[in-house]
TrEMBL record, chain A:
Alphabetically ordered keywords of this record: Molybdenum, Oxidoreductase
Source species taxonomy: Bacteria, Pseudomonadati, Pseudomonadota, Alphaproteobacteria, Rhodospirillales
One Gene Ontology MF term: oxidoreductase activity
Stretches the record annotates as Disordered: 1-28
UniProt name for this protein: Xanthine dehydrogenase YagR molybdenum-binding subunit
Residue ranges of domain Aldehyde oxidase/xanthine dehydrogenase a/b hammerhead in the record: 36-145
Domain of life: Bacteria
TrEMBL record, chain B:
Protein's name in the database: Xanthine dehydrogenase YagS FAD-binding subunit
Alphabetized UniProt keyword annotations: FAD, Flavoprotein
InterPro entries per UniProt: CO_DH_flav_C (IPR005107), CO_DH_flav_C_dom_sf (IPR036683), Diverse_Substr_Oxidored (IPR051312), FAD-bd_PCMH (IPR016166), FAD-bd_PCMH-like_sf (IPR036318), FAD-bd_PCMH_sub1 (IPR016167), FAD-bd_PCMH_sub2 (IPR016169), Mopterin_DH_FAD-bd (IPR002346)
Superkingdom in the source lineage: Bacteria
PROSITE patterns: FAD_PCMH (PS51387)
GO molecular function, one term: oxidoreductase activity
The keyword Flavoprotein belongs to this UniProt entry's keyword annotation: yes
All residue ranges annotated as the FAD-binding PCMH-type domain in the record: 1-225
SMART domains per the UniProt record, alphabetical: CO_deh_flav_C
Organism: Azospirillum oryzae
Classification via PANTHER family: OXIDOREDUCTASE, XANTHINE DEHYDROGENASE SUBUNIT C-RELATED
Pfam families listed in its UniProt record: CO_deh_flav_C, FAD_binding_5
SUPFAM superfamilies linked: CO dehydrogenase flavoprotein C-terminal domain-like, FAD-binding/transporter-associated domain-like
């Protein structure tokens, strides 16, 4: 091993050495449970006398259901009941938004809005019988000609700002047209991204049972309080009578954030037949009964001075959504503010088609919109004959161009410099096709990663016991990110006990509420909340110790006390007196201190906590407040393209990221690594194919919906760049779960251009685009 | 999945007897094609005859002799891929197997079953679409639909589904023969190039096998070209994906001059495709870029792309050229 490689592999250890403002790489709290199969996912919950539910879905995309012939299905031995629009009494329609994925409410009427819409639920004693019967349900339709998406006749285009509350305004500043007219260098280009599906390995499922009029739902969920509220609405019952439990989630990425109508349908079925029901959705049905990332289009215009100062930036986006719901991601909120452009003009359009309502998918706005912006940055650098890193440096800014708001911290160029160094960027020959290695064309490219720091109101209960153990309870969600671990670390640090002594309970509406696990807010929100609860415990304890008649701390200033190594200490590192927790508690005559705490980030409405209890979370941050709160990164990739057959491989990728306080370098690295791999996936592999005649998805399985396999990922390096930001929140944490997959596709597209001279503006980039006849 | 009867057969003869000739029975080996399609309601056998117990006999063995290779039909893909004689003397076979599916599937799947795997055409695999192969006369949804993965050679107006496998291409290139047994008519030998039928107007009939006919072994004759042979598979990702285009090539060179060339193509044709025109174009020529390119042109002369799969024509040509140039460079 050469010395160079050695440093790279050290830097890239699974548990990186913490640098400034970083926590220890504590192994995952649930690691053992997961690798031994003992972690119980919602569909694994053992239930007595459970009936199995299998969905029947439509095979048209638009029209009406005219008849359901159930005779063959009902004759299958073991079939208990088939729920349809004719007998689903008491099922209420859902509204779109605030925790629900769609207003399309199957089984409440006969309208078909999209391919694969639920038309019935078969219940049987065995899964096999239910599936067989589901195939035998015969549905008849009055079909209408559907519009599949962009360019199809019959779609309707709506300005997002006219239809969506969360996007009342298209960010703009100055006069773009004038700026472009007077710019010596301009580009004017269009990009597109395809339909993508999350395909979490854990399939979507609902398992539930009733005890009298009380409902318990086990379902993988990124927002148990939201699910509770909405399933109650769907059934017309009191949310207090519903418990939603979701202790482990096997991949979510946004797909398990808003509740889909299946939950209430399964719950209703369970009530009807008086038995617990488990419904695990097939992989193909996961493509049509849950949310997805809709395809997007972008038109970008940029102007610059010959020395690289951007004078104007225009970004217009188009996004597909369903007929009834206005789902929009509007990534211009971020792209309009990313650099110190002069004039800015943006606009977001929704294109309504006969499709299911799309939904959040890892970095929903940034993945498509930053792909367009960062690809354009590379095109501009080429037009300027300038190094793409330098172009970013010239246009780096500490205040955003729309409202002149300052960034609380921004380490973009630190990230670029660290990545360029680790990657060896200085050895790049900028000429197209210049870096060939035998039969392989080599290309290097880079792009910016960016993600807003979001936070919401949250509540938590923390208990510290005399024996030095602690318990944290909050209905946050472990979507595979390491939430159990970092929340435990925060409590351990503040309470001065080992992390092993902290029990963390999550994912249950019996616990105090936490916001949706979305927008990468969990660590920032929950760690800030837990910190508040721990500080209340500290306050009580220190007060008791200081105001005691005797003991080592009697008469001291409580503010000078600290919790460390399972005891109270005074005098910090100077080595003042210490006393074990058991003794402090003994003198107080108590066994435990328990604190319930609520925390609200700056700028959220005062009723945010009450709303959270009622199942809706308000996230704040990013560009929404007075200050700009964002995490940044830079990604550098090498692609190799076979000179003859043009397959594209990524042998090397380096990502550097700065996201405030890093709670745990191991789980942070895993998140970023997974994100970068997903970025490669979105650049080269993922695409849901749509049959445009029928507006139906075609490759509805993970054999033909490709994601990278191990062989596709060779050297992948994550570098954590130290950053301190006291302004974002008490914990100093910026979310990073969705940072890693932003920018990757643009870096790869840039590298493909560098290798081949072909600028591919439509994802995914495949052999088809590079082979010439 | 529909209910079915299940029977185990200890011997090949027993399996054939149990299957009968009625057509509602399927043999099951690894089950990696069959159980998948049964769960999707695409294949609906009433009876399954499990041939795995017969793997204890000759059908589970690999024999390599001077005159050639004999592969039992119940040998697992993984075992054949890792067999030393196959790897050194017939690298094209070992590579075609090794580059297929995943290790887990290769551990389960049999060589006989592999030859009979069904197309990955998504319209075939989802019962709600019209498909002439699944439901004769219902139409072909792929013809004007999503057809990036479909065939450009050997297609018909009824079906353009590509044959998805890899192994069969290696066998077709090397003039392999399958040995079968039937309840009526006894054993027979079928050239691999005759085993699969192009779709014509009966795409539902995929092979010349009769109902209840069991493949027992595959034989591959030795030849001066088998050592200088390779399988090149081009796909969207580096592992665990079907071929967009593939080439099985074998060369017998006299210095740089081609004495014999064997070329078969995958990913682009409705059946394992022997490119005889390409072989003829190479015979007697100096093996260089120009000759390889001429051969590739000849191989694809009759290609009929349809929509999304047009890229397969240039891709297949490049695949052939690259495979031939790589084979020329092989140390044997
Ligand atoms: C996700 C996935 C990826 C794959 N990727 C590839 C790939 O890249 N390349 C590739 O080549 N293959 C690939 N395959 C296909 C795989 O190789 C085949 O499924 C496998 O080889 C079939 O063998 P089996 O023993 O499991 O057959 P089975 O499923 O048991 O049988 C298949 C068919 O053959 C019949 N049959 C089985 N044995 C005999 C016999 N001896 N005589 C007569 N009829 C018989 C059965 O009745 C059935 O109709 C993939 C499969 C999957 C699921
Ligand atoms: S290509 Fe063949 S298998 Fe596919 S839909 Fe058409 S007929 Fe069916």
């Amino acid at each position: 091993m050469s010395p160079d490689q050695k440093t790279a592999s050290d830097r890239n250890a699974a548990a990186p050495e913490p640098k400034r403002n970083m926590g220890r790489p504590v192994p995952r709290y649930d690691a053992r449970l997961k690798v031994t199969g003992e972690a119980r996912y919602p569909a694994d919950e053992p239930l007595n006398n459970v009936a199995h539910g299998v969905l029947v879905t439509s095979d048209i995309a638009r029209g009406r259901l005219t008849r359901l012939d159930l005779s063959e299905a009902q004759a299958i031995p073991g079939v208990i009941e088939i729920l349809t629009h004719e007998n689903a009494d008491g099922l209420h329609r859902l509204e779109f938004g605030n925790g629900t994925a769609t207003s399309i409410s199957p089984l409440t009427d006969t309208r078909i809005w999209h391919d694969g819409q639920i038309v019935a639920l078969v219940l049987a004693d065995s899964f096999e019988a239910a599936r067989e019967a589901a195939y035998r349900v015969k549905a008849e339709y009055e079909a209408e000609k559907p519009s599949a998406g962009f360019g199809a006749p019959g779609t309707e285009t709506v300005l997002a700002k006219d239809a969506v509350k969360s996007h009342k305004e298209d960010p703009a500043a100055g006069d773009l047209e004038a700026a472009l007219r007077s710019s010596p260098v301009t580009i004017d280009v269009e990009y597109s991204t395809p339909t993508q599906h999350h395909n979490p390995i854990e399939l979507f499922s609902t398992t539930c049972f009733w005890t009298g009029d009380r409902l318990t739902v086990y379902e993988p969920s990124q927002f148990v309080y939201g699910f509770r509220e909405n399933v109650a609405k769907q059934l017309g019952i009191d949310p207090e009578k519903v418990r939603v439990v979701s202790r482990f989630i096997g991949g979510a990425f946004g797909s398990k954030g808003p509740m889909t109508p299946r939950t209430g349908i399964v719950a209703l079925a369970s009530r009807r037949i008086g038995r617990p029901v488990r419904c695990v959705v097939s992989r193909a049905q996961c493509f049509t009964t849950a949310t997805y990332r809709a395809e997007t289009r972008h038109h970008i215009r940029m102007g610059a001075t010959p020395d690289g100062k951007i004078t104007g930036f225009g970004h217009e986006g188009w996004e597909i959504t369903s007929r009834p719901d206005s789902y929009v991601v509007a990534g211009t909120d971020t792209t309009a503010r990313l650099y110190g452009y002069g004039a800015v003009w943006t606009r977001v359009n929704m294109v309504k088609a006969d499709r299911n309502t799309p939904g959040y998918m890892r970095s929903p706005p940034e993945t498509p919109y930053v792909f367009a912006l960062e690809s354009a940055m590379d095109e501009l650098a080429v037009a300027l004959k300038m190094d793409p890193v330098e172009l970013r440096r010239i246009n780096d800014t500490m205040t955003e161009p729309i409202g002149g708001k300052p960034y609380t911290s921004r380490s973009l160029m630190e990230c670029y410099d660290a990545a360029a160094e680790a990657f060896g960027w200085s050895k790049r020959d900028p000429a197209v096709g210049a870096m060939r290695d035998g039969d392989w064309l080599i290309g290097w490219g880079c792009a910016t990663a960016v993600y807003p720091t979001n936070m919401g109101a949250g509540a938590a209960r923390v208990r510290l016991t005399a024996d030095g153990t602690a318990r944290v309870q909050t209905a946050a969600h472990e979507i595979g990110t390491g939430a159990y671990t970092v929340i435990g670390q925060m409590a351990a640090e503040r309470l001065g006990v080992p992390v092993e002594a902290v029990v963390v309970e999550l994912g249950d509406t019996e616990l105090p509420p936490a916001p949706v696990a979305g927008g990468s807010n969990t660590t920032a929100t929950v760690c800030s909340t837990v910190l508040t609860a721990c500080d209340a415990i500290r306050g009580k304890l220190f007060h008791a110790a200081a105001s005691a008649k005797d003991g080592p701390f009697a008469g001291r200033d409580p503010a000078t006390l600290d919790l460390r190594d399972g005891g109270v200490t005074a005098g910090g590192d100077a080595g003042g007196p210490t006393e074990k927790l058991a003794d402090v508690f003994g003198r107080m005559g108590t066994g435990a201190i328990e604190e319930y705490a609520e925390w609200m980030p700056e700028g959220v409405p005062p009723d945010s906590l009450r709303k959270l209890y009622n199942g809706s979370s308000t996230l704040k941050g990013g560009s929404k407040g007075d200050k700009m709160m964002y995490a940044f990164g830079a990604e550098f990739v090498e692609v190799r393209i076979n000179a003859r057959t043009r397959e594209i491989r990524v042998p090397r990728i380096v990502g550097t990221f700065a996201a405030g306080r890093i709670m745990n370098t191991r789980t942070a690295r895993s998140q970023l690594m997974g994100g970068m791999i997903w970025g490669i996936s979105s650049a080269l592999h993922e695409k849901t194919e749509i049959d445009r005649r029928a507006a139906r998805y075609v490759n509805k399985n993970i054999s033909e919906y490709l994601v990278p396999v191990n062989a596709d990922i060779e050297q992948l390096e994550v570098i954590l760049v130290p950053e301190e930001d006291k302004a974002v929140n008490p914990a100093g944490v910026k979310g990073l779960g969705e940072l890693g997959n932003v920018g990757t596709a643009a870096a790869i597209a840039a590298a493909v251009y560098h290798a081949t001279g072909k600028r591919i503006r439509d994802l995914p980039i495949r052999i088809d685009d590079l082979i010439s006849a | 999945m529909r209910p079915f009867q299940y029977e185990r057969a200890d011997t090949l003869e027993g399996a054939v007897k149990a299957a009968g000739t009625g057509g509602a029975t399927q043999f099951i080996a690894g089950g990696t094609t069959l159980s998948d399609l049964m769960k999707l309601d695409v294949m609906r056998p009433e009876r399954l005859v499990d041939v795995n117990p017969a793997a204890g006999g000759p059908a589970g063995r690999i024999e390599a002799t001077k005159s050639g290779l004999r592969l039992g039909a119940m040998v697992r893909m993984a075992e054949a891929a890792e067999h030393p004689a196959v790897k050194t003397d017939y690298p094209v076979i070992a590579q075609a197997l090794q580059l297929a599916a995943s290790q887990q599937i290769r551990n389960m799947a049999s060589l006989g079953g592999n030859l009979l795997q069904r197309t990955r055409c998504e319209y075939f695999r989802q019962v709600s679409w019209p498909c002439n192969k699944r439901e004769p006369g219902s139409g072909c949804a792929a013809m004007d639909g999503v057809n990036r993965l479909h065939a450009v050679l050997g297609t018909s107006d009824a079906c353009i589904a590509s044959y998805p496998g890899d192994f069969a291409q290696a066998l077709v290139a090397l003039d392999a023969v399958v040995e079968t047994v039937r309840e009526k008519g006894g054993a027979r030998r079928i050239a691999l190039s005759d085993l699969h039928r192009p779709p014509g107007d009966t795409p539902q009939v995929e092979t010349v096998l009769e109902p209840g006919e069991l493949i027992t072994a595959i034989t591959v004759p030795a030849g001066p070209w088998t050592r200088r042979s390779l399988y090149l598979k081009i796909r969207d990702r580096d592992s665990y994906a079907f071929a967009l285009a593939s080439a099985a090539v074998a060369l017998d060179l006299d210095g740089e001059v081609v004495r014999e060339a064997r070329i078969a193509l995958g990913g682009i044709a409705t059946v394992p495709w022997r490119a005889r025109e390409a072989e003829a174009a190479l015979r007697g020529k100096t093996m260089d870029e120009a000759a390889a390119t001429a051969a590739a042109e000849a191989a694809l002369a009759g290609a009929q792309p349809r929509g999304d799969n047009a890229f397969k024509v240039p891709l297949a040509k490049q695949t052939i050229v690259r495979a031939l140039m790589d084979a020329k460079r092989m140390e044997t």
